[in-house]
Amino acid sequence: MSELIPAKEYLGKLKEATEFVKAKVANEPRLSSPRVMIICGSGLGGIADILHSPQPKIEIPYADIPGFRTSTVPGHSGKLIFGLMGSNKVPVMCMVGRLHFYEGYSFQDTTFPVRLAKKLDIETVVVTNAAGGVNAQFKPGDLMVINDHINMPGLAGHHVLRGENLEEFGPRFQPLSDAYDYALRKLFFTKARNELKITRNIYEGTYFFAAGPTFETRAEVRMIRMLGGDSVGMSTVPEVIVARHCGMKVLALSLITNACVGDSPPSAFDENPVPMDSGMASHAEVLETADEASKDVQKIIEATVNAL
């Protein structure tokens, strides 16, 4: 289990990062007080393309920000982008490329940007991800609004709030029965169906957080399904927990990029077995499916944020 940075040192790094970012956006008053943070999942970095501003959007590479880690995953460009979204010009900070536990980073590292968002007085966090469809009803390209989660690493002792509690952000024992804001979920569905007339399947369900980086085995898929998971992925939950610990409202969305294989593997005694790689997940498939659905995701998120 990775060593934790002492709270005093962590808060010092956070203060330095906050001051650095504030200085970068200080010359554009409309961008200096963002109200919404959007975390772009695999293949969904195009969400930042719908930001607009009277000046060029402000882009800050992670590598330039004190205390920030860099993203190492294909499809994650690794920068904060500040701009305005929608006709109401809502000031937004986009995190284009998230940080993952499986990259070797601690949860303190992966959720550092969320704490930064709180320091910037951001009120709402929109979290997107690419996920595998565990629910047999889900097909690649479907969307799932998250209404609950199962934090498997957290249940096993790798919890994002482990260690000294940061009292200035939230309580020692954070309730999570209201983690995914009802009003935001309702708004998302209303905008998608009534205003934009999106025909893509949109469900609600439970997200299962697995540490990764391997995709799940067949037996693990059956276990996740039995435990109540509808989608599975390697992110989101640590960010959501920290956002709630900071008192921010959360809307979270899974883009289903592949159907998880849960059938038992072919037996060595079978004469004509189904190929072992039938339905096998790949990161390339994740990015391809995300690209196809990204335009709908962008439209719905823009309409939702515009109403905040």
UniProtKB/TrEMBL annotation:
InterPro entries in UniProt: Nucleoside_phosphorylase_d (IPR000845), Nucleoside_phosphorylase_sf (IPR035994), Purine_phosphorylase (IPR011268)
GO CC terms of this entry: cytoplasm
Known EC number: 2.4.2.1
GO MF annotations in UniProt: inosine nucleosidase activity; nicotinamide riboside hydrolase activity; purine-nucleoside phosphorylase activity
GO biological process per UniProt: guanosine catabolic process; inosine catabolic process; NAD+ biosynthetic process via the salvage pathway; nicotinate nucleotide salvage
Keywords, sorted A to Z: Glycosyltransferase, Transferase
Residue stretches spanning the membrane: none
Binding site for a purine D-ribonucleoside: E216, N258
Name of the protein described by the UniProt record: Purine nucleoside phosphorylase
Domain Nucleoside phosphorylase: 35-305
Biological or metabolic pathway of the protein: Purine metabolism; purine nucleoside salvage
Family, similarity comment: Belongs to the PNP/MTAP phosphorylase family.
Source organism, top-level taxon: Eukaryota
Positions contributing to phosphate binding: S42, H76, R98, L99, H100, A130, S235
Keyword Transferase: yes
Catalyzed chemical reaction(s): a purine D-ribonucleoside + phosphate = a purine nucleobase + alpha-D-ribose 1-phosphate
Organism of this sequence: Spathaspora passalidarum (strain NRRL Y-27907 / 11-Y1)
Function description: The purine nucleoside phosphorylases catalyze the phosphorolytic breakdown of the N-glycosidic bond in the beta-(deoxy)ribonucleoside molecules, with the formation of the corresponding free purine bases and pentose-1-phosphate. Cleaves guanosine and inosine.
